[in-house]
Amino acid sequence: MQATIKWLGKDGMAFSAETGSGHLVNMDGAPEAGGRNLAPRPMEMMLVGAGGCTCFDVVMILKRARQDIHDCQVSLEAERANEDPKIFTKIHMKFTVTGKNLELSRVEKAVALSHDKYCSATIMLGKTAEITHSIEIVEI
């Protein structure tokens, strides 16, 4: 896996990233750090990556378990250390899984498998942050 990050100029703190798969993502800093608030912060991108990784796992596991899943959303709330390095110290993930006749035990197992075995991003972040989760099932 690879990525290239390029600073977009001396008048700010914006960056453009090109991923190894050829996709572009912009990032920017907060105004108090010289940015212009034109794109997500790099640490927000880390949080989004963790959410995307775990949501991917949960959907894949539930599909393989033949659950009639129609939607999956994860909302993340994170706390960071007050001092540098301002690492994530707590992350709460709220999963909202929508479908027909979903079994709570299967959804719980999918979330646990993602958290404990499959999601590289949350497993890595779990080395410094306490990661908790909650689950809501919406029946359609």
Question: Gyration radius, to the nearest Å?
Answer: 17 Å
How many domain units? 2
End-to-end Cα distance: 39 Å
The CATH topology of the largest domain turns out to be: GMP Synthetase, Chain A, domain 3
Low-confidence runs of at least 5 consecutive residues = none
What would CATH call the homologous superfamily of the largest domain? K homology (KH) domain
Q: What's the assembly state of these chains?
A: single chain
Polypeptide structure, described:
The structure is a single chain. The termini are far apart. This protein has a three-stranded antiparallel sheet, with no helix packed on it. Strands 4-5-6 form a three-stranded mixed sheet, covered by helices on one side. It folds into two domains: 3-33, no CATH class; 42-139, K homology (KH) domain (GMP Synthetase, Chain A, domain 3), CATH 3.30.300.20. It contains three helices and six strands, in the order E-E-E-H-E-E-H-H-E. It is α+β, with helices and mostly antiparallel strands and 140 residues long.
